[in-house]
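Appendix C reproduces, verbatim, an entry submitted by the partner laboratory led by Prof. M.T., so that reviewers can inspect both the input and the predicted structure.
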Amino acid sequence: MFPQNRPPAHLQAPSAASGAAVAASAIPSTPQSLKLTYPETLDRIKEEFQFLQNQYHSLKLECEKLATEKTEIQRHYVMYYEMSYGLNIEMHKQTEIAKRLNVICAQLIPFLSQEHQQQVVQAVERAKQVTMTDLNAAIGHQLQTQHLSHHAPPIPLTPHPSGMQPTGLAGIGSASGLLALSGALGAQAQLLAKDDRGVHDMEPRERDPGPSSLALPNGERARAISEYLSSSKKRKVEEKDFVTDYGSDADKSEDNLVVDEDPSSPHSVHSYSSRENGVEKAPLGRKEAVPLSPTSMASSSSTSPSRSKDAPMVGYDPHPHMRIPGLAAGMQVGTSGKPAYSFHVSADGQMQPVPFPPDALIGSGIPRHARQLHTLTHGEVVCAVTISNSTRHVYTGGKGCVKVWDVGQPGTKTAVAQLDCLNRDNYIRSCKLLPDGRSLIVGGEASTLSIWDLAAPTPRIKAELTSSAPACYALAISPDAKVCFSCCSDGNIVVWDLQNQTLVRQFQGHTDGASCIDISNDGTKLWTGGLDNTVRCWDLREGRQLQQHDFSSQIFSLGYCPTGEWLAVGMESSNVEILHVTKPDKYQLHLHESCVLSLKFASCGKWFVSTGKDNLLNAWRTPYGASIFQSKETSSVLSCDVSTDDQFIVTGSGDKKATVYEVIY
């Protein structure tokens, strides 16, 4: 392409055939030659610019197309992840049901006649030989039958026959796995509701976050805490109507936080008279159950016994669930013949019951018991709680919102504010107040953290932090309130600059979701626990991993002692382990009967509390774990917090409420 006002022929550049001499004669002077080629140069530059611009637009369209395809692939990935996780949870659930049915059969067979015993034993043996092909054929036939007679009420396999649940056996509807601290809150609920709406009545389930039943609606694994929620009241309906109810506390990706309601269980707080390890008042009205396998022990929840001074100890073990596999029977009991629950584990793995010192339960800063002060009816499963430094306000996180409660005055409580966060169907997994009490950071089953301005006349979102992970399971704030740490469902620990609202670093190491977190008081070390069965310590100054502790169970909760070198870890296996951060020795506590979903140290460091899927709130002495007091709630206790003055404890549970306790010294 050449300009329209092309120079005269005698001034144009010569053809290639003319030769060098002709070229020299055709162009009289260098200045005139340069001057005459400017239009051509400009035209060619214009052509090149247009060509590059066209290329840019073409590449931009391709980039947008690839971004659209990426989004679609991610959506499919999340969908398949939800499906696989839901199937995995269902597999664990059915495995647990099979184990417990096997125990029931073992208990019932001796009561049958000899002829029937033989028939039942043979039938059980045949059942054990069933292959996957036979099982698939049976399931297909069952589905076909249900399809043909969908108008008839379905009779699914219930955890136990109505009216035939043996005393001491845990509710069978529970499944194991996290956010027990993190539960497929939303995912499982949606999958089961679609596929089996007539059989499973889905309710918010809490991994649980941690965890298990609180499956993430977006499919992520809040799985630890969440896995376990299933509505307790519905359990009664289930026994009446033969309909299994696995509540889905929004399917907290942890798995299925099963909420087992025990109407007869006391609401008061029990104190142990445990100067010696294993010494406690004898439980009444509890018969011995056939010992369960370690796996079934981990996820079973049993009725909390009422205690009486005058009840004599009979020749049976009142706490078969607290037996430690592989530990000699003589080591399992204290000097009084009662079961030990606290063990010291040496560097070579030797376990010995802990002899508690005389001042284990007395002295300055050691509570005597706790008194229930307020019940905060949130209306949804409460997966996160926190209490302000002034102890006037309590914040409860449920499905899609955080509610603010004024607990400074007595009387019936109603929320004074509601902070709508995330999507309406997504569970809040963690909420943390900044030390000045003017800002609240909220994270959950979404890729965005919300920072709320509480000092405004009406609370409002002042910033949002977005990461690539689909969910946040836990949060921690640095002592100087300048940095926020987020435990992500992809295993990364994201570090946020709160002043500039920017992502400054990611700690990578966990191979599965990071479920819990705590930071040292000096702000130099970070401790995280994960669904990959590891606890890791990070150096915040150098940005590297310092330590790694491997366990045989998923980690649902942890807390770092504010005054000492101790780290308490709550496990999916129901154990609480107290690790020394520089020595190999540790303590192992066995009072919980199911997943330990949350854990929090008192500011004084002399005691800490833990909560679990077994409906229990336990208070322990640091570090050896003497039991200070215990409270039995009516459902899985998914979250807890202790006020900075150590005067109040707040818990959040699967029966859609939070409870405020006053600590009595």
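The mean pLDDT is 74. Additional entries are available on request from the coordinating office.
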